[in-house]
Design goal:
By secondary structure, the chain is mostly helical. Helices cover about 75% and strands about 0% of the residues. It starts with a helix and ends in an 11-residue tail after the last helix.
Length: about 160
């Protein structure tokens, strides 16, 4: 019982660190269209360790926080994060593995899907949609996957992940 509580506390510390990185480090990494999304990493790390309902609720809360910072598309982020959180928690039983490459792809796909849903829900024009999904989203997905892989490597013992590199 002590280990379960300490595992939960470790997960909370990692998630808190990712939130701090989102607001302290991400603005300093250049173009926000390419900078890694640490909140998405936190959502996906939480989602693969929880039920679909809890993951959807966490996604909704993260989406509302993001939407409050960009009120022009209010609701699109909440919808996108909720769907991604739910699908990540549900999909972990189907394809989740302890492989670093699979986890990186998981982070990249989650971010790209989030961007797709947000762009569609916010009514983006077709020209902008193609540029965002074809250029900016893949670049951001790569940087997010890279940072997510670093988080998994650094905190592998805390997150109980056995990575096969």
């Amino acid at each position: 019982m002590i280990t379960v509580r300490s595992d939960r506390n470790r997960l909370i510390l990692v998630l808190a660190l990712l939130v701090v990185l989102q607001f302290a480090l991400r603005p300093r990494l250049g173009n926000p269209k390419v900078a890694p999304d640490f909140l998405m990493i936190a959502l996906l790390v939480f989602s693969i360790r929880s039920s679909p309902g809890s993951a959807a609720l966490a996604g909704f809360l993260i989406g509302i926080v993001g939407d409050s910072l960009t009120p022009a598309r209010f609701g699109a982020g909440a919808l996108a994060h909720t769907v991604v959180g739910y699908l990540a928690a549900w999909g972990r039983a189907v394809f989740f593995a302890d492989n670093l490459l699979v986890n990186g792809g998981f982070f990249a796909l989650g971010l790209w899907l989030r961007n797709l849903i947000m762009l569609l829900a916010s009514g983006t024009s077709s020209d902008s949609l193609l540029v965002e999904l074809g250029v900016w989203s893949p670049l951001q997905a790569l940087t997010t996957a890279f940072c997510g892989a670093i988080v998994l490597i650094v905190f592998r013992n805390w997150l109980d992940i056995r990575l096969e590199e």
